[in-house]
Write a structure and sequence with these properties.
The protein is of the alpha/beta class and about 600 residues long. The protein has 23 helices and 14 strands. It binds one RNA strand of 77 nucleotides through α15, α16, β14, α19 and α22.
Amino acid sequence: MFITELIQEAAVTSLSALFQQPFTAKDFQVNQTKPEFEGDYTIVLFSLLKKTSRAPEALGKELGDDMIRRHPELFSSYNIIKGFLNFSISDQYWMTLLQHNYNDVCFGKHPMNGKKVMVEYSSPNTNKPLHLGHLRNNFLGWSVAEILKANGYEVLKSCIVNDRGIHICKSMIAWQLFGNGETPQSTGMKGDHFVGKYYVRFNDEYKQQVKELVDHSIPQAEAEKQAPIMIATQEMLQDWEAGNPEVMDLWRTMNGWVYEGFDITYKTIGSDFDKTYYESNTYLLGKDIVQTGLDKGVFFRKEDGSVWIDLTPDGLDEKLVLRKDGTSVYITQDIGLAQQKYEEYKIDQSIYVIGDEQNYHMKVLKLIAKKMGVPYADDIHHLSYGMVELPTGKMKSREGTVVDADDIVQEMENEAKAKTEELGKVGDFDPAELASLYHTIGLGALKFFLLRVDPKKRMVFNPEESIDFHGFTGPFIQFNYARIKSILRKNELENVIHLPLDFLPAEKELIISLEKYPAVIRQACDELNPSAIAIYIFNIAKAFSSFYSGHSIANAESAEKKQLRLQIAVMTANVLKSGMQMLGIDMPERM
RNA sequence: GAUCCCGUAGCUCAGCUGGAUAGAGCAUCAGCCUUCUAAGCUGAGGGCCAUUGGUUCGAAUCCAAUCGGGGUCACCA
């Protein structure tokens, strides 16, 4: 149980006994005491004054006395300042906490709860390489999956690959027209970049053709439709849907190139999936459900044969769910896939990591599920995240302002290498160890940078300033971990039980912070928010760093103090490693 | 036009289920390596929490309006 819960419980018991009426934890707040006041945790009394008809001081005294009387092992003293009842928690409580948990690498994690949840993330298109926005998505998805596991869920990671549609045909057409049979192998290019090159080529060519048509005084809108390369692309899409062998063959080949490239990137960044869905397999799903919905009267058919749902009573619009030619649209497929996931895996929750530009779409999906009365409607969660922008504005592939995923990872590793060589602390590492260290630090910096911000907020990535290994960064935390590991290599930890010892304020502060870890894991799960972990872990690292510079562990005042500090160091290292693991960030033993 | 999100230090972000004097990092300035890893530590400066009004004992936090920025409202995915 968390300390705040213990305090709440104790206060509820005392209040109910003192005033002969029921109280709950919601009647008052328990906060950590501000550093400028004496005490560890504070009960705010204002909200209780009316119900108890007491003045703050009187209430504080009655409550404080009663709580101490009932729990002498927990509370050592209290003071009242204005409406704030400040308790000092007994050293014995903190000491017991430390003794029981310092060497438990699972500290903070919660037991299995028997629930199964699927996290869908990444969702790439197979016409171009991954960029920085995809990295935010991948890191979020991975991290949320880890956070759910730590909270006792069984987690399945899934990926829906957008492998069909007009955008795929664009790179196919361009390759047919201009490729001269070249391949990733023949050019030495990574497959996804190779295909992406032709996607860009398409857009260049298309722009050129439209311009020429406009120059021959054809209106812009008309020119966009008439451009020969666009017409060819649309024909190809029809051929694809008709199953034309030649087109299918090209499609398989080019997608294969992209997958080879993606595999490399996923391996590099540490993303993986338990189940991969391909839109080419799922795009027809959902049509049966639409029929069921029609029978139920949830959907309606318009004169031209298209099928719609009227969401105006819910403040939204009418939404198309089936085209007049009977083919499915984006939402149709999602309705089907949601059903399939539920049936296939018996999941209790389905989390979709998708950008916030699809908030409306996901709202509609959930609403449709609700109206259809499916059992999983309430268990669909959209983890909506904001765009990653550059200081100059949005990233646009057409304008070449996209930060490529492979490039930025490489750049971070290069920076890690340069910095490591400059510091010269690992001169004895062999080349493989060095490469691994650069990867750990560079990727750690990137992951931490993208995960430390609240997912739902847009964020700015400045290529010049963002590659920073100082301050609120992954490498800072890794550094503190390595520093603790260095101490532990040089100092023996003996499993001795300590007599009551006085804590220094800095020692107690660290233990109090460490105690919050289980609550932070819970909160990160409730909010589906890895940044809660990132911020917490940084604060732990900072507290340790500050402690480290003020107090020697190896040369502590006494042998017992040394053991106490070693235990605190071990627990700090465990929490740092465990927390960073939930962000998908490895910790080096040395750096 | 409808609807949703955002606006906190020069910059990037915390804090938002209302509580004590609004916090970090970067950048700037001043100190600190003969002692456990200085990717570090200590300190200084830097704020009308977009604006106005409301609710409350108490508002950065809740409500409303306004102003600024962005998303969405496709028989695209």
